[in-house]
Amino acid sequence: MRRGQVTRIVESRWFSNAMFMVILVNAVILGWATYGGSVLPYLLVAERFIIGLFVVEMLLKLYAWRGSFWKDGWNWFDFAVVLVSLIPAAGPFAVLRILRVLRILRLITAVPQMRQIIGALFRAVPGMGTVIGLLLIVIYVSAILGQQLFGEAVPEFFGDLGTTLYTMFLLMTTENWPDVSDAVLEHHPQGWLFFVLYIVLTAFIMLNLVIGVIVTAMEQEFSKSRWEEDQQLELVQHNAVMTRLAELSAQVRHLEDRIATGSPHPDGSASTESVAAHGDHGVPSGSPGDGAGPEAETGERDASG
Question: Do residues 218 and 120 make contact, with C-beta atoms less than 8 angstroms apart?
Fold first, then answer.
């Protein structure tokens, strides 16, 4: 087949839908194989057949897109997943066969909406890094304070820095935090102030900041395509308006040139300067009497004689 035909097949909707169904079937087979039983050999045969389909898909895409195939990060991911699937079940790399479960993640590349969500998460990484760094500072400072305040009374939760950090993480998730607070309040009745401030600061403020950064990044990612379409439409409208303005400017200059030179208009009428120079009836101004020239007076004498 020619490259153009292969490209049309690879980029067609039916091909994408077919590969999507193959990925779903592969996910079912991987889950079914965990039960073992008498059907396991048949599942292994079906898995090899699906791996063959994935290899054919990669070869078709490489033949159709060639160098442009490597410009998309999702293609790199698909290629790596298929490459891991080809690792033999025996040998030094057999442990990597466990990574064959990553073939299920190809559902992300098959669904455009999922790709947008993952792209938004990557876009949110810089903002999340800042907020998470601030959250880690708060947790670390709180762990040191908690160890110094409650370490002797409640060593099972605040005995050392590692134990206290784990306790701070549990408090941040608000999971079974009353067990920690009750153990502390038995020895420090005013310890509730520490827990209230810490949970409000981490669970209700810091984590919401992380969620806000993610939501903002997702909104930008989903609005990116619409923004590009709006920019293209505005560019077309701008070019049309500028072209019309250029045509009108050329017409105005043409009219100004005709008026300046006194040439007749396209409809045959005389210009303003020409009419003003010849009077109301097109006769030169400055003639004697009622405007008749010397030829008219000679004609009158001949008629009377």
Answer: yes
> Shortest CA distance to 184 belongs to which of 137, 152, 143?
152
Q: Are residues 117 and 78 in the same domain?
A: no
> Percent of the chain scored above 90 by pLDDT?
16
What is the span of the domain harbouring residue 97? Answer: 3-110
User: 13, 63 in Cβ contact below 8 A?
Assistant: no
Backbone angles phi, psi at 162, to 5 degrees: -65, -45
* pLDDT at residue 33 greater than cutoff 90: no
Q: Which amino acid is at 8?
A: R
Q: What is the DSSP string of 46-72?
A: HHHHHHHHHHHHHHHHHHHHGGGGGGS
Candidates 10, 152, 3; CA nearest to 72 is 10
Question: What is the sign of the dihedral through the CA atoms of 125, 129, 135 and 140?
Answer: positive
| Number of domains the chain is built from | 2
Q: How many angstroms separate the first and last alpha carbons of the chain?
A: 108
Residue 280 lies in a domain: yes
Residue with tokens 């007076």: 297
Is the domain of 263 the same as that of 220?
yes
Q: In this structure, how many other beta carbons lie within 10 angstroms of the beta carbon of residue 172?
A: 20
Last-in-domain residue among 92, 110, 128: 110
pLDDT for residue 270 is more than 60: no
The answer to whether position 295 is within a domain reads no
User: What tens digit of pLDDT does each residue of 92-148 get?
Assistant: 665 666 777 777 788 887 787 788 788 778 878 887 888 888 899 999 999 999 999
The pLDDT of residue 44: 85
Confidence band, pLDDT 50/70/90 cuts, at residue 158: very high
Last residue of a domain, one of 91, 110, 129: 110
Q: Do 8 and 64 form a contact (C-beta atoms < 8 A)?
A: no
Element (DSSP H or E) covering residue 158? helix 155-158
Angle at the Cα of 14 (from 85 to 113), degrees rounded to 5? Answer: 70
